[in-house]
């Protein structure tokens, strides 16, 4: 019965969801810190999600405006340039300011929080280069 077999397959776990150590992999305290269930469930402030997505929302608005003014080619060209600039990075243990992305977005003349006090997501402590490269390549 094909219907019975389909219902059995629907309830099973696909192989793409399970990695080699995915189900039994522990939490990495050195890279991710201590876990808090409360922080994973709810944002700590109502504006936190808006602030996290601010740049994405601003880019979408700019692309829509650019499309209305110049046509579909302008935002597509700009998105291709964004992708090309995002691919060029330094090694993971070296700080990268990504000046080309700032120039494309027009933020090169603006002074922001990260210019004075550095980006909060960037750590001041440089990690061990070999371990960080192995983690980026998925060898760890």
Automatic annotation (TrEMBL):
GO CC annotations, alphabetized: cytoplasm; nucleus
Family under the similarity heading: Belongs to the POMP/UMP1 family.
InterPro entries assigned to the protein according to its UniProt record, in alphabetical order: Ump1
Keywords linked to the UniProt accession: Chaperone
Gene Ontology biological-process annotations: proteasome assembly
Pfam families registered for this protein in UniProt: UMP1
PANTHER family: PROTEASOME MATURATION PROTEIN (PTHR12828:SF3), PROTEASOME MATURATION PROTEIN UMP1 (PTHR12828)
Protein name from the UniProt record: POMP protein
Keyword Chaperone: yes
């Amino acid at each position: 019965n094909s219907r019975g077999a389909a219902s059995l397959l629907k309830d099973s776990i696909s192989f793409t969801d399970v990695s080699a150590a995915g189900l039994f992999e522990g939490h990495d305290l050195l890279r991710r810190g201590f876990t808090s269930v409360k922080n994973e469930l709810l944002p700590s402030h109502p504006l936190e999600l808006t602030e996290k997505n601010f740049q994405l929302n601003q880019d979408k608005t700019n692309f829509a405006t650019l499309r209305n003014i110049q046509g579909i080619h302008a935002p597509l060209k700009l998105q291709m340039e964004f992708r090309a600039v995002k691919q060029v990075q330094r090694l993971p243990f070296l700080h990268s300011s990504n000046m080309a992305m700032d120039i494309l977005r027009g933020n090169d003349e603006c002074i922001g929080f990260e210019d004075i006090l550095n980006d909060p997501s960037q750590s001041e402590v440089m990690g061990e280069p070999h371990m960080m490269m192995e983690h980026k390549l998925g060898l760890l």
